[in-house]
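Before relying on records like the one below, remember that each one covers exactly one chain. Contacts with other chains, cofactors or solvent are not represented anywhere in the record.
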Amino acid sequence: MPASVRPVDAPTLEYYLAVSARSPIALRLVLGHLLRTLRKANGIEAEAAGKSIRGSEAKISRMERAQVTCKHDDVMDLLTLYGITDTQLRAHFAEMVRLSRQPGWWQRFDGVLPDWCGKLIGLQEAASAIRTYEVQLVPGLLQTPAYTEALVRLAHPLVSQEEIDERLKLRALRQNVLVRQDAPHLWAVLDEAVLRRPMGGEQVMREQLRYLVKMADLDNVTIQIAPFNRPGCIAAGFPITHLRFEPLTLPDVVYLEQLRDAEYLDKEEETQHYRSVLDGLAQAALSPHESIELLQRILH
């Protein structure tokens, strides 16, 4: 393929490695995106690419959508097919494959972490913006330890104190994403019911509301309340999380959590729909300033 149309170069790959190295899941997404970009640039159909690695069209689709971890030999064979013979570029791709196959830090909590939740943590680690709407509970990234413990005891009444402590440790480590140097922007819209439900009792809830006020003071955290008396705030009756990955050239992802499972959406028409829902909720909700005033009124 002529260099003038080659969609990857060494500086780009080095940048992607640097900004997504903290999250193996993000690296899988980046790798899949780059492989798809190269295939499309060469005008090669997925079926033909699959045959080149002794696989199928479905295998190429899974690799490009980061639904599986890529194997070194498969990626090298695809790069050859796509005309990438430069030693430095191939070395960068090899490093991307190696890092993408490493376990994330959260995997040491496999005993208390649902299978479907690990991907969300990896995506949050790589996101530049996280938008979330909650109808019942304070978002995990904004919970106090006491609030989290009350939730765990409610959902898992028979668990040991050791498991509760592990869940609290996991939650605390997840929340570090908001205070690191290159923290993502968290924009949370909370239904007023979240504030009125006394999870853990009055003292725990008051501490939680004070913590929301404190977190809203951070430059990268925006909190809005969707009050009972605004009909426009009933656009969705379930939690929504929308993740964006700028400046990585990755598609947005929407995370929809159910009782014992979760769905991840990355098709543009789907993510755009949920982004529009979030836009509408943010427009109908109280402004960030009004939301803090409401929190303070409840506290007093």
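The first helix runs from residue 10 to 20.
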